[in-house]
Batch of 3 targets.
Target 1
Amino acid sequence: MARSWAELLGEPGAAPVPEEEGGGRFFSRLRDSLGKSRRALTGELAAATSFDPGDDADWERLEEALIAGDVGVRATAELVRRLEARGELGDLNAALAEEVTGLFGEAPVLDVAHAPAVILVVGVNGTGKTTTIGKLSARLAERGHSVVVAAADTYRAAAEEQLETWAQRAGADFVGSERGGDPAAVAYDAVEAAIARGRGVVVVDTAGRLHTQTNLMAELAKVRRVLAGRLDGAPHETLLVVDATMGQNGVQQARLFGEAVGVTGVVLTKLDGSAKGGVAIPIAYELGLPVKLVGVGEGLEDLQPFDPRDYARALVGG
Amino acid sequence: MFDALSDKLQGALGDLRGRGVLDDEAISRAMREVRLALLEADVNFGVVKDFVAQVRERARGEAVRKSLTPGQEVVKIVHEELTELLGSSDSRLAFSQRPPTTILLAGLQGSGKTTAAGKLALLLEKEGRKPALVAADLQRPAAIDQLIQLGGQAGVPVYAGERADPVKAVRDGIERAKADGRDVVILDTAGRLHVDEPLMEELAAVRREAKPTNVLLVLDAMTGQEAVNVAQAFQERIDFDGVVLTKLDGDARGGAALSVRAVTGKPVKLASLGEKLDALDWFHPDRMASRILGMGDVLTLIERAEAAIADDEKEQLEKRMLKGEFSFDDFLSSYKMLRRMGPLQGILKMIPGLGNQLEGLDQVDEGQLKRVEAIVLSMTPHERRVPHVIDASRRKRIAAGSGATVEQVNQLIEARKQMAKMMKMVGSGKMPQLPGMAAGAPTMGGGPRPSATRKASSKRKKKQAKR
């Protein structure tokens, strides 16, 4: 079973994807993607069944395996603490998967129940924001939402062309501007257009920026303010796109983007490499930010709702 | 860049610095902290293990026990090991005897290859070469457009042809560059996952076709533990010569940089420190190690100053300063020189002993600096030359003219007075003590350091290469 789009979008009567309809397929896909990490984790542990809770060296190996998965020092310490507190471990993999799932908390919802709902997408350079927006727009369109895509990345050379290509594929309206224009103005225009045309969801792409660039972060805060000024409650979702290859810097990104624009959820991309995306765990644990979507490939169908249990199982190899 | 790692390491070693005697426990405690600092900086855990073991062993050795300042000795060991880890070898690229020199850029999606290609073209062009860019990224929508725009900004030709076949695109691109008399060809390939077999094979085919003089792996400085796997996979397939580290201008702790060299033996050659097209520079491992340990980076500072300040301008100012003449005109021109060297905060961090004292000073107020400029520009030429004529009513006028308060004008006038006094002291051979120098300086002083000779030689090399 995997989390379905209907569940993620909070549709009434939503149910998980049954195994036979691709839920299992996506899970196995995720597990294949995380295959390397599975080997790394269980490999390091030299067959989890032989894990001896009384042996310090075994605990150290577990720690190293988690750190090698980019889980980070603090979240690793917390996971180890929780496992130790269990006393009797039984199957280490199952126990670890449970604790990882626990750190993620409840599976979240992507709030699109507004007319129109505004989704602001932010992140550092090169994490896959534009690609994510293309896929997300297509999935939303499939679920019966009419979508407006706003190219508020007015900085990167050729960013707009890339987004327009995606918007066409997704059958979404496209609102652009000249290069070097004001991103807040583009965002405003997109909301105007959505209201005028009665569209359901506005997805706003923004230029990649490092979270330490104060001016650019201030620019992003302005985009948010302008959206809120045009439409009460907007943006209803602010998604931070985090690359699975990212290390502990991802936590800092989530923290600073959160302070600047109030992030409501994380999209974990590029899980199809050998990277484990373990940084999602400290982001959830230290900042309480839920992962809402996960990307495991280039294809449209490769963006999926994040299922904490599936992810934890795939990560640990349970 | 590397700030957080730098802070942590300095914290870990700070306790050792002042100690006269080192016991095992103190060393162990410091090593635990060092280990934690490196792990949090995303240094590969295997590399961390080896690094800590190596430092620990040396810290228990003869040299430390016999030293009068064992704490300093350990700091020195960490510095040396860190430099070793970052790679002490030359960061220069190879240039072919028979042009064109070819440079192949490869890496994961989103690592910044295309931007790095544009930046590298500009850097080489500034060094007097004639680069050209070839688009071999036929995967990502709009990648070619992006490269064409970057080429336009850098004033460098971009060859983009056959959309379907990267091998052909590369072959044609090199041919056209040759025909146009370009002496360096930079090949921008599509981003790919190192586990994507068909795409890695395609890259290997491009490499076979291009027979590049240099193969560079472009790596995002924010990459985590995965960096090592990525680097190893690319090394197996395309055997790269060095690394371009991108996005180092954030607060990424650069663990990837520390790990990749250790695992693959390939040095970081270039580092990108900003979004602007001119923000790519050659990587100097020894300087970087100094900066990580908060020991400043005087060489880069001097180079920046040299690049920013015209010789005659400098001489003139020096002469006047030594005579103790320091009018507002001088104030303004020295201020303008400083501005040309880049963001003030970056400059301050390169000053030895100052780096770790800038805490809480995270954002040097650049706006305030602009106000200073506005105040000086609101003075008449006469007032600038002969500052003592500025009386109360003139102060009021200057304040009104510059949008500042009279108090701010007063402060500036006072600051100039102090500076002129200081200049006079320098001129007469009495060195004024800068605040903070005494506290941070011991790591720099205290006898000759082995790395001093290395620094000098790397500078020579750079000069040679620039010709």
Note: The mean pLDDT of chain A is 86.
Target 2
Amino acid sequence: MSVLSDDRGQMSDDGRQMSDVGSLVANDSPAAGSSFSDLRPLTSDFRPLTSDIRPQTSVLHHAVYVIGENPVTGFAFALFLLIAVCAIFGPLVAPYDPLASDTAAAYQSPSAAHWFGTDQLGRDIMSRVITATRLDLAIAVFSVALVLLLGGVSGVMAGFFGGWTDRIVGRLADTIMAFPLFVLAMGIVAALGNTVTNIVIATAIINFPLYARVARAEANVRRHAGFVQAARLTGNSEMRIVLTQILPNVMPIMVVQMSLTMGYAILNAAGLSFIGLGVRPPTAEWGIMVAEGAAEMVSGKWWIAFFPGAALMISVFCFNLLGDGLRDIVDPQRRT
Amino acid sequence: MLTQIGRRLATVIPSVIGVIIVTFLLTRVLPGDTAAYFAGPAASAQAIEEVRKQLGLDKSLPEQFGRYVTDLAHGDLGKSLTTGQSVTADIAARLPASAELTLIGLVIATSIAVPLGALAAVRQGSLVDHACRIITTAGVSLPVFFTGLLLAYVFYYQLGWAAEPLGRLSFLYSPPPTVTGFYLIDSLAARDFELFQAAAAQLVLPAATLAIFSLAPIARMTRASMLSVLASDFVRTARASGLSSGTVIVTYAFRNAMLPVVTTLGMVFSFLLGANVLVEKVFAWPGIGSYAVEALITSDFAPVQGFVLTMAVLYVLLNLAIDLLYGLIDPRIRVEG
């Protein structure tokens, strides 16, 4: 009995380490080794070794490991840091006020004063591109977090409980998948109203099937695992098992899923604002900036649409590479 | 085989029902007054009341749903405020433009992606393989509207090779007599080769944009599937039996590797139909995508709803076609199913 409760303590310990990326690899071992209960003491013997290292060092250690493993991922990580700096300190880094128009300086091509040139109202494009990072990233992060919550929880429920829960979640996911996803997002934003919040909601809804399916599969494999039965035996309610045993174990995979879909979420949101949904001018946002520069592109003023488009492309590229890299580490079998 | 098709057809029904329920709900979850939305932003209180009666919005929800389904069965999708015509007629008139663009885009993408992916798998680790990896990773990161603009800038403005990126035909020409609605086919049917050239010139850039977008998933899938087939026992046996590597690769490996690629086409279509909207907006292509975008901007809801429904039904049908095709190519599915 004491071994079992010790086991439970260890599992929730894993749950607490979830935010620490360094535990992603280590986290797989309890689940994999769960059927070999005699191996358990061994793993817990190793624990103190890793927890000796201070958290900061372990993140650093992990970053070094990632870069050593795959230089492309290292490059993507550096790019991510740059994007993060733009998102956090955007208005401070930007050389000009992103909304200040100066019609005397309209349509200037890139120069020393305006690195990315100016647009039809004489606004500095570089400042606008930098400031827009925060909004674009926020839309993507919030929509991915929302779908992680909705899709993750309902997928885990479906996989763990099966039966009607499974059927309802499955039917919901199938119905969403019956639509071309971008078209559905358009319809949702049109119906809910033309706001940024609704872009976040629409992007979350179209990603729902993906998250629900992954979470369902992961929870389904673990529903009869040794540690779950042990938890049941010690008198935990089913709901408690889902929250304390299943969710922490499914989380690492879901985090990978998150980074894989971040790029898609950014693209989707930018696409919606490109066709005039959600973000309204004069707000700086990459999609709408490309739309504003679209007409000037064919008359040779390429810089108005080019720089926001390039920023969009680079950040999506960065997230895709990061997602692939993270996936390779957590789930090496799916490496391509 | 027939029961197979019948069984697959039966699976379409729940999808279509789901699609109809969702599009119905989309109109009912509108925050605020649905009737006011349908009547348009400039409608008077009396007009809104009239629309409410006309749409049956004063009735209960199940009654409204019944009415919605009956209207659909009659092909009635409501009326567009901007064009003043029925949405069904508008969409029917614009659908060929979208279909032509999407199909040509897909054909270009497939004819580049499949050989590229196959070659990358055969020569694993070679230059082609690296090129394939770069293209597939970059391809999924490119915002489709941005690619379109770049292509227009380079090939129209800089090089002057392409036609002006505006619409299906230059204003110098009038469209061919409608047979299929596809300008390329109709102009050939009318034996007007100059017109064919003009239509093709307009089509190249938007189709290429769509092709670049859909290239990545097809190439990636071809490569992965080809790799797994090349590593399989029957290929090794064929090699060991002394067949030339050309025969092994083309007739043994390639044909088998194509099966999963056909399945991926379903996902590719989902992307394509969405990307289509953006490409149509960039190139002022008069298809149903740009129709929906115009309607969205003027808060004209009936066309948007009709558009979403049409796209979803099309997508369900395309998936059905792909599955049936799959059964035709791969006899094992029939036996096992």
Note: Chain A touches chain B through 48 residues (CB under 8 Å).
Target 3
Amino acid sequence: MKVIDEKILFEAASEIIKRSCIGIAPDAMELLKHAYINETNAAAKRLLETMIRNAELATEVGKPVCQSPGYPVVYATLGNDIKLETNIQKVFQKAIIELTKKGYLRPSMVHPITRKNPGDNSGIGVPDVEIEYDPNADYVDLIISFKGCGAELANTLKVLTPAQVGREGTGIKKLVLETVANARGIPCPPVAIGIGIGGQIHYAAKLSRKAVSVRKWTDINPNPELATLEKELLTKVNSLGIGPAGIGGDTTALTVKVEMTSTHTAICPVAINFHCWPARRSGIRIHSDGSFTHLL
Amino acid sequence: MSKEVRLTTPLKKEDIADLEVGDIVYLSGKVYTARDMAHIRIMEHLKEGRQLVEDFEGAAIFHAGPVVRKKNGEWEIIVIGPTTSMRMEPFSETLLGKLGVKAIIGKGGMGEETLKALKKYCGIYLLSPPGCAVIQANSVQKVLNVHWLDLGVPEAIWVLEVKEWGPLIVAMDSHGNSIFKEVKEKALDRISEMFKEK
């Protein structure tokens, strides 16, 4: 059995944190460039151009694309054949603290009630670590996603009744569109919208965050039912005309990602989770021989 | 027809009155960053009748918290960009009315209370491109001062000297117009249309 020690994990963590901060994920860049070509509103087009230029410049000069690192979540996939002789959260927190000192991350983690800022992004439960178990994995996958918190302010979580779901999920679609309209420019459009449907509220919320954090924004949902829903919602959202930064235009969302799980016959929890355009996300696979390959 | 103007702080009523939504501003001079905690502390100071750390008459307030580092004893801005302005909505009347702030700069827009205060006291809301922190840091010439660092780096008031900072878009003007309000109303109309009983 392969053992992954703290040194290997720290190296992997540092690499993906740094890579996430100083640019945006290539799939998000692809969508942004596509949106720029298709945008018909002149002011919106100019803003998209500035966003693209800023993200490219960030990578070029090695500085954070956005001043706010948002909030970090680590998605880890663990299997039977790998043993972790270390604590994922502690190691990631250590790497985050070190990269904060180097100016890659603004110290933004605070005590939720006293608002006290320790000044180095250390904090209770930071980063959130979501672990998935895959018995067949002979590797460890680690994806880190820093999601901005202006976007978080526009999120919605609602438990619908079966009557509110409506025929063909009309109620869900309406809730998504109204949430987008009310969010206006707050979540830094063009956004990615993660939607979690089903379970109970905690489950829907987790799915909504995961949907925009571990999938490529350019991918197509393997579930044809959800692929159709994603496409329909994206078209409808972009017909609302909110536009980049909320100033009007054709580009409100770059992508819509839906994840679903069964729920109880009495309810339908729906979580709508905005991701700002700067997709600070990066992943790495640690193989059983200790070597790394990039994910995402 | 939208226009492009160059403004220097402290701002005067004449600088603002002619501006309309869609106009572009390039700003030079002194800019103060302030987020939630700085606003809360300003309100506490006013309530207790204590002297504020700066005179905000004609000031430009930037909803932002920078990434900084100290180099040879001097603060240096690594990157800076806007935060969500809507959180500061409850403070607009005081800032514009009592303190004489003339320009609020941020992202995402603000609400009805701010729109009213901008009209009443002749102020503007400028949109700074969200997520574009590297480009905008290039307009910062110098960190002139920092107040209330005990609130943490993001929440402190950073006094910055900026040069030709822009393009900033006039998104809410002193005549009661707001791009954000207009865009939202149109979006909600479209939704009603979409879900009309078939």
Note: Chain B is about 30% helix and 30% strand.
